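hi! just following up on the protien thing from before. the input was this:
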Amino acid sequence: MEKIKAFLKRKDIEISLKRYGIDALGAMAQGLFCSLLIGTIIDTIGTQFGISFLTTTVATVKDVEYTVGGIAAAMSGPAMAVAIGYALKCPPLVLFSMVAVGFASNALGGAGGPLAVLFVAIIAAEIGKAVSKETKVDILVTPLVTIGVGIFFSWLIAPPLGRAAMWVGNLIMWATELQPFLMGILVSVLVGMALTLPISSAAICQAFGLTGLAGGAAVAGCCAQMIGFAAISFKENRWGGLVSQGIGTSMLQMGNIVKNPRIWIAPTLASAITGPIATCIFKLKMNGVAVSSGMGTCGLVGQIGVYTGWVNDVAAGTKEAITTFDWTGLILISFVLPAIFALIINFGLKKMGWVKDGDMKLS
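and the predicted 3d structure came back as:
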C-alpha cells in the first residue's frame, strides 16, 4: 500500500473531490467557453451585424459546412478534454493525446457528451500520467495508452453517461414546465449557489443540457448571485468590486462566505424570488447553448445566450419577433431585481446584526 501511495504521489495522481469535482469541472467549463460558447457568439455577431466573413462557409468536411464559429463549436470535445488534462497537471504527451480522447467521448456521448468527456478524460489522463516516462519509448507508449484507454472508455461508458445526463436534464426541464413556480425557485437557487461555489455551474448546465424555461431559471439564479453580491458589497469594494463580481464572478466572495456564511443569505433569497418571476411572469427561456444558462452576467454570456435563442426562434418560425416585453424581462431579471431584492434583504440582515460592514471586503 505504501508503494502505491508513493507512486501516486510521484505521478501527482490525487484521487479527491477537489481535484475531480472542482479543478477538472471548472477547467471543463473554460474549455467549453473557448470553443462552443465563443463559436456561438461569433456566429451571432456575424449574423446580427452582417459580417460576411463570419457567416460564410470557410471549411467543408464530408459535406458538412463550417463557419468560423462553427469550427470553434465543433472543437468543444477536444477543448474540454485538454482543459481537464491541464487541470490534472498532465505531462505534454498525455495532454496532447487528450485531443483524440475528447473528440471520441463527446461524439459518443451524444447530446450529453460533456458529462461523458468529464469522466472519460479524467480516467484517460490519470492512466496516461501513470505510464508517462516509465519506459524508454515514452513517445510511443504514453500516447498509445492515453488514447487507447480514452477510446475504450468512450466506447464503454460515454453512450450510457450521455443518455443519463440527457434524461436528468429533460426531467428537470419537464418538471419546470409542469411546475414553473416551485422548479423556478429550486433551479434558480441551486444553479446560482453552484456559480458562487468553487465548482462550475456552466459545466453542470451544459452536461445536463439545461435550456428552455429551466435554463431561464438558471440564468436568473446566477444573475442574482453575481449582481446581488456586487450590489450589497458596493460600500466595501466600490466600482472595482461591482465590475469584478457583476460581470466577473461571485466566487470571489467564497473566502468571506467561509468566515460569515450569513452574507450568502441575501443573494440566495434574491435568486429564490427572481427564479419564479423569470419562469412564471416573463417566461424567460434559454434557447441558446446550454452552457450559457450557468454563466449569469459573466461577460454578459447569459444575456447573449438568451438573445441568441430569440434570434434562433425567430429564424425557425417558432417566435414571431423579439418584443419589448422580452427585453424588459431580461433586463429586470438579470440586473435590476437581483440588486433591489439583495439590498433589501441585506439591509434586514444588518439590522439583525447577522451581517456587518466589512464582511464582504475583497482582498
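The first helix runs from residue 2 to 10.
The chain has a mean pLDDT of 92.
cheers
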